[in-house]
Amino acid sequence: MKNGFCFYKATPEKALFDYFYFKKDFVFDEEYLNELRINRENVDIKRLEKLVKKYKSKKMQKIFTFIKNTL
Q1: Can you give the residue range of the structural domain that contains 46?
Q2: Are 60 and 23 in contact (CB under 8 A)?
Q3: How many independent structural domains does the chain possess?
Q4: Which of 32, 36, 49, 68 is the most exposed place for a label (fewest CB within 10 A)?
């Protein structure tokens, strides 16, 4: 709690999920993912997969499959 407000810090997986979920155009390109400089050691692919399944978004399912096969 800070200044009377309660806040939560997102996990790396949730932050990544939100970034791609709210981004209008995802580029299915390995170079694009490399330019994002995702720290692979901080992202648990199983946790990311759970989020994708939880929200049942077809867009995120496609993006997750690409990320899983690329990272």
Answers
A1: 12-70
A2: no
A3: 1
A4: 36
**4 in a domain, yes or no?**
no
Helices (H), the chain: 12-22, 30-35, 45-55, 58-70
Cα 35 to Cα 61: distance, rounded to the nearest angstrom:
21
Task: Give residue 21's Cα distance to chain centre.
Answer: 8
Residue 3 CA: distances (Å) to CA of 8, 9, 10:
14, 16, 19
Tokens 């997750």 belong to: 64
pTM of the predicted model, to two decimals?
0.84
Examine residue 50 and state whether it is found in any structural domain, yes or no.
yes
Domain assignment of residue 5, yes or no = no
Percent of the chain beyond pLDDT 70?
A: 100
Please indicate, yes or no, if residue 55 is contained in any of the structural domains: yes
